[in-house]
């Protein structure tokens, strides 16, 4: 019996039990690392401890031998002489009673065919401009490979070697291809699994113990407004609505939406992590944990707590014409670009012309950015003082 290893704590424990049962039944077992470039427990710093900073971790990985070319798929697989007793897939009743997945079906093609198609598209249209394009939610500048990687429909080694072959065409300098920004994102994925492997408590508890006493709020109304894209801040709302409709959100907008939840609303990062876990088509325990602890400032190599993303300036910088907001927040679609990321400041004549009625067909901001920032920073100062 052969399978690819996974590294989530509960899955590792499950696989150990399955393997023990198979061997007790007289079956030979073998597992492989098909999900990562490196074993997550292999790399340690000079002191022999797990890395908690990304740059030296990824430098160590790059200094190791290059990930090998994957073996070709077998031409045929031999079926067992006798199959074990099982159930038809439909009998497992896995699909929801209400068909809420139309948006997912429209946005994704599951399987290796969809994965290879996205990879080809990205190499052709996005790789060379990735450093700039990856920050623009209004453009198709990212690979959208994260769900395919999570579900094993494409391996990181396949992606790595595809970029290598692309570099060999002369489009990327030969000395720089392995440090290309896009491959660094694969490095962050490796780092996330490295952290989860060594710190399995972090999906629920902060890596930095001082944050266990942080004065998080409990406000169900604000949480629901954030979940449904009704905060009154267009970039945040666009991202949360894209997530609900398609199961995915652009990474720049994920950072902005996460920062808004944990720093402007002071709601626990675990609430955001749970919502993303329930709604993301690429929901991955390691990546989700790293991302939310990064946003909250309580994890490894985390953003300083005083780094609070401003959804207005982020929108104006990375969605300058408002195309992303217009798509996902259609009630603001007719507002001029000058006001689309700050509709509460728009003159009444512009609001009337665009058909926007604040507080009626689009909400007013749930909190003040300035005041909420001050409250968050004071909470952080108190936490540091103990």
Would you mind describing this structure in some detail?
- There is one protein chain.
- With 386 residues, the chain is mostly helical.
- The protein folds into three domains: 1-32, no CATH class; 39-64 and 107-198, Serine Threonine Protein Phosphatase 5, Tetratricopeptide repeat (Alpha Horseshoe); 209-385, DNA Cyclobutane Dipyrimidine Photolyase, subunit A, domain 3.
- It is 48% helix and 2% strand.
- Helix 1 (9-24) links the parallel strand 1 (2-4) and strand 2 (30-32).
- The longest helix has 18 residues, at 181-198.
- It is globular and about 75 Å long.
List keywords for this structure.
single chain, 386 residues, mainly alpha, DNA Cyclobutane Dipyrimidine Photolyase, subunit A, domain 3, 2% strand
Can you summarize this structure?
By secondary structure, this protein is mostly helical.
List the helices and strands and how they pair.
Layout: E1 2-4, H1 9-24, E2 30-32, H2 54-63, H3 102-107, H4 112-125, H5 130-133, H6 146-150, H7 156-171, H8 181-198, H9 220-227, H10 234-246, H11 251-264, H12 269-279, H13 285-296, H14 311-318, H15 323-328, H16 348-354, H17 369-385
Helix pairs in contact: 2-8, 8-13, 10-11, 11-13, 12-13
Cross-sheet strand order for the largest sheet: 1-2
Structural domain tally: 3
From the alpha-carbon coordinates, what is the Rg to the nearest angstrom? 23 Å
What pattern of helices and strands is seen along the backbone? Answer: EHEHHHHHHHHHHHHHHHH
Question: What is the name of the CATH topology of the largest domain?
Answer: DNA Cyclobutane Dipyrimidine Photolyase, subunit A, domain 3
Largest sheet: 2 strands, parallel
The portion of residues forming beta strands comes to: under 5%
Per CATH, which architecture of the largest domain? Orthogonal Bundle
Q: Helicity, in percent?
A: 40-55%
Instruction: Kindly report the average pLDDT value.
Output: 92
Shape: globular
CATH superfamily of the largest domain: DNA Cyclobutane Dipyrimidine Photolyase, subunit A, domain 3
Number of strands: 2
